Amino acid sequence: MTLFHKISVIGAGAYGTALACAAARAGREVTLYARDAATAAQMKASRQNAKLPGISLDAAIDITADLADAARADILLLATPAQNSRNAAIALAPLLKPFTPVVACAKGIEHGTHRFMTEVIAEAIPNATPAILSGPNFADDVARGLPTAVTLAARDEQLASDLVQALGSATFRPYHTTDVRGVEIGGAAKNVLAIAAGIVQGRRLGASALAALVTRGFAELTRFGRACGARGETLTGLSGLGDLILTCSSPQSRNFSLGIALGEGKPPEGKLAEGAFTASALAEMATEKSVEMPIASAIAAVLDGTLSVDQAIESLLTRPFRAE
User: Fold this and answer.
1) With the C-alpha atoms ordered 320, 260, 79, 244, is the resulting torsion angle positive or negative?
2) C-beta of residue 219 within 8 angstroms of C-beta of residue 254
3) Which of 103, 105, 128, 183 has the largest count of CB atoms under 10 Å?
4) Tens-digit pLDDT profile for the chain (324 aa)?
């Protein structure tokens, strides 16, 4: 029997809306917060979100633009983009009950501060209990109730287990862990590597090149994770290798699609790709920790205009031969 009955999702984008659907499917009382009042009213009236076409929202999901109303919950899922998470957390801080679990659902590293999402929550809401949800899942699949497995991490194992019980259902299957940092690193790094995979696809370099890129990218993710104290089983699990495989293989991934556009020399679609914001922070942190991440560094250079796509590919292909 879960301790958490009322769940609020902060952020009514595609993923936030999908998580609200998953929480409702788990039998919880769900509130979905949209910052824009007109958007909230439209969604409430139509039971639809334009960002998730074809999905009808359960009548039990309450939709509001009142943050104080949304804050009156047992658990909050923070589903705003990574670079907006601090502002959202600051707005929530005076409204929350002490020790309320706030679960980060964005995959990224904050620009400038190099903070991971649970660190942002801890700094902005000192009396909250941070947690992180990550893993191989697309919003459309989650919203439709297709089978999905994710990882949910909190420093306290009992809390992590209780959060899993609150959110899990027959088709949304969270696995709990206390390796918060490992889960965060997997989610952040794989987005950057997915851009690289997309470039390989967009340049039509072949399936062999794509397999090599993903494999060497995973080696980078693993090196960085170990330098940050992550556990090996987390990095090879759902929130590491699992999420990398998904994100590097489907145009449903915004990061992969961004990479395809870069590889084809076309302008990006304009949809938010978290990896574009994370790349420079990841490359800077790797340098600080003396961790070799040539693929991530090349993507950061492409995105900031230091290297062209062709120069980045050449720099990777002309690296010295070495033992694996």
Assistant:
1) negative
2) no
3) 183
4) 467 999 999 999 999 999 999 999 999 999 999 999 999 999 999 999 999 999 999 998 999 999 999 999 999 999 999 999 999 999 999 999 999 999 999 999 998 999 999 999 999 999 999 999 999 999 999 999 999 999 999 999 999 999 999 999 999 999 999 999 999 999 999 999 999 999 999 999 999 999 999 999 999 999 999 999 999 999 999 999 999 999 999 999 999 999 999 999 988 777 788 999 999 999 999 999 999 999 999 999 999 999 999 999 888 877 766 766
- Which of 51, 97, 107, 190 is catalytic? The answer is 190
Question: Where on the phi/psi map is residue 95: left (φ > 0), alpha (ψ -120 to 50), or beta?
Answer: alpha
Taking the CA atoms of 271, 37, 86 and 161 in sequence, report the sign of the dihedral they define. Answer: negative
51 is catalytic: no
Contact 40, 62 (CB under 8 A): no
Max CA pair span of the chain: 61
